[in-house]
Design a protein that fits this description.
The structure is a homodimer. Chain A has five helices and three strands. Chain A is an alpha+beta fold. Chain A has a three-stranded antiparallel beta sheet with strand order 1-3-2. In chain A, helix 2 crosses helix 4 and helix 3 packs across helix 4. The first copy, chain A, is globular and about 55 Å long. Chain A starts with a helix and ends with a helix. Chain A binds a DNA duplex (30 and 30 nucleotides) through helix 3 and helix 4.
Chain lengths: ~110, ~110
DNA sequence: CTGACACTTGCATATTATGCCAAATATGCA
DNA sequence: TGCATATTTGGCATAATATGCAAGTGTCAG
């Protein structure tokens, strides 16, 4: 692992990290259905305005969403929709785990 | 967002979180080429044995890798290879960002 | 049984993340 | 201009992560 490779993996990990939070992942998936303004997220989720705003800033910083200010509102849009394509694989992991846990429970 | 949905997103995020670390992501990709024992990773990376071991434990806990103890050694194997399929999309995000940053620099 | 090897776990510490409150900014309306 | 709405920023308390070191566990060779 040379320095350049380290940087690459650090960059890739930071993109994943941006998605690796329930709130941000949910918001990203919501954006797959079209742009949304911050206020819409605030309505849908029981969090402070500032909390939502900071989460969106993380997604933006990671290059996952892009921003469009229109009037008083700020709209966020999914910039790289392909990121959500692999969610079915993530779900496969969870289901596989669920099975194992279920199987383990059988033995108790 | 009801409770069940919250749980689902928490679970999905935790799988992503396991991959969202340069060291773990690199190890996961290495495992795509076949199983490896902990000692091989220790040789390849400049980290303490215990650090590597803990990272692998995180991947295991997330359901991404599986373990096979053989003799004195412990081998780790990729359990869900599809997770790495979307890495090209992650790289696309990075490249897109790189372009924007390059474009921004033009204006200075 | 003893010692060596390959890990894993517990502990301490440093860094980073999360979420709220309050303050700052930006925009449009009266 | 002054005020309300929409959003971002700064600050702070708390929680979670990352890492190394030291100590513990399990396995094999002699």
């Amino acid at each position: 692992m040379n320095e350049q490779e380290k940087m690459l993996y650090k960059a890739k990990a930071s993109v994943l990290k941006a998605l690796a939070h329930p709130t941000r992942l949910w918001m990203a998936e919501q954006l797959a259905g079209g742009e949304k303004c911050v206020c819409e997220f605030v309505e849908m989720m029981d969090f402070d305005f500032s909390t939502i705003s900071k989460h969106l800033a993380v997604l933006k910083q990671a290059g996952i969403v892009e921003v469009d200010k229109r009037g008083k509102q700020v709209f966020y849009r999914l910039k790289v929709p392909c990121l959500l394509n692999f969610m079915n694989c993530v779900e496969a992991v969870i289901k596989a785990q669920g099975k194992e846990q279920a199987a383990l429970l059988q033995h108790l």
